Inverse folding.
């Protein structure tokens, strides 16, 4: 199991558990680091690479343990995990939240489409939609979050706007924003990518990684969003700054102004967390979504880019796996979430039941760190 001193370039598809990465592996266009240089390739890491459809070459330090008969076994585990990811059915009692989600999607779609062909649009409907999201988040943030996490995506640009609005409103609630502020940041979430209407569709909807020149064009959507919105007197500085700076990163690696740390508006830091979280947990044509806790792990691995304090508050308060949710475990067993840890909601207590519905055992994932959730099960 001794690491070899040599660093070599290999195809990403050839990565195997045990290898040590010699460079970061990133996901564009978010620029987030999926795996950092120096980290050891695990089965979970391979799963993330496969889901994100990351291709090309990378540098690795090889290890003896990475070569050999384990390969097929690991590939089989990955295949099983991916095939188990199916959406959960939303409970009937949550109809109101579903209606809000659906209506907001339609409003966003209409607004974005109208803006694309006519500059004379008003913000009335979309402001009302943002107020609806804010009110639902205040009364019960959990239901909308579950819908956003599990809903099949119709159109990425419009769904993404709705999801980001939901996540950023939830984060604002955790931070004790006033109702008015919560409505405003919800609106920022709905509007933040309106500038994508000015980007050629073949770039916005490209099923795969953008080339460098395409990515440069894509980056312009932030300025386009700002230009489209800056003349609306209803939008205050907080909202406009959040939109203009939602791709800035704490380490200065973002765009368009390469701001860093305290230079970045606080609302933009909140919007960035919601934006990246939805991007990694949403199915795209070219890749599968990460599970809620896998998305959380990716965000934690990007703490230098995102505001760590806000990120901790987001991850600690989001109930990704609510009580009653059915999940698949890495052991192959199916269980039901029966309790959550206040500070570790990503490691809930799971009850495993047999075919006769009798309890077999209860697993506390907080005390079983080698067992993890690999899928969510339809009722
Ligand atoms: Fe964006």
């Amino acid at each position: 199991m001794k690491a070899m001193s040599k660093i070599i370039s290999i195809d990403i598809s050839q990565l195997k558990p045990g290898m040590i990465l010699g460079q970061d592996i990133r996901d564009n266009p978010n620029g987030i680091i999926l795996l950092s240089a120096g980290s050891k390739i695990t089965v979970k890491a391979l799963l993330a690479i496969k889901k994100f459809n990351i291709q090309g070459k990378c540098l690795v330090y090889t290890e003896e343990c990475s070569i050999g008969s384990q390969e097929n076994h690991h590939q089989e585990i990955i295949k099983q995990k991916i095939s188990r990811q199916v959406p959960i059915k939303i409970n009937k009692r949550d109809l109101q939240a579903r209606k809000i989600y659906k209506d907001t999607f339609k409003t966003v779609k209409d607004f974005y489409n109208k803006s694309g062909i006519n500059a004379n649009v008003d913000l009335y409907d979309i402001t009302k939609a943002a107020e609806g999201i804010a009110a639902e988040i205040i009364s019960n943030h959990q239901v909308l979050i579950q819908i956003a996490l599990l809903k099949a995506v119709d159109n990425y640009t419009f769904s993404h706007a709705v999801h980001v609005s939901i996540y950023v409103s939830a984060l604002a609630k955790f931070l004790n924003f006033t109702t008015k502020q919560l409505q405003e940041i919800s609106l920022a979430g709905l509007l933040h990518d309106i500038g994508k209407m000015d980007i050629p569709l073949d770039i916005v909807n490209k099923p795969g990684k953008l080339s460098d020149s395409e990515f440069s064009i894509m980056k312009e959507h932030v300025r386009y969003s700002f230009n489209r919105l800056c003349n609306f007197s209803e939008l205050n500085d907080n909202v406009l700054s959040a939109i203009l700076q939602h791709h800035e990163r704490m380490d200065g690696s973002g765009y368009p102004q390469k701001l860093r740390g305290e230079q970045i508006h606080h609302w933009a830091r909140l919007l960035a967390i919601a934006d990246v979280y939805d991007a990694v947990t949403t199915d795209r044509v070219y890749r599968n979504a990460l599970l809620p806790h896998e998305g959380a792990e990716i965000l934690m691995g990007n703490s230098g880019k995102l505001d760590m304090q806000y990120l901790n508050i987001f991850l600690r308060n989001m109930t990704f796996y609510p009580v009653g949710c059915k999940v698949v475990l890495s052991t192959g067993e199916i269980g039901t979430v029966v309790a959550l840890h206040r500070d570790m909601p990503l490691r809930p207590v799971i009850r495993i039941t047999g075919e006769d519905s009798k309890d077999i055992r209860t697993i506390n994932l907080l005390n079983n760190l080698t067992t993890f959730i690999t899928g969510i099960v339809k009722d």
The pocket of fe (ii) ion is lined by residues 192-193, 221, 246-247 (CB under 6 Å). The radius of gyration is 21 Å.
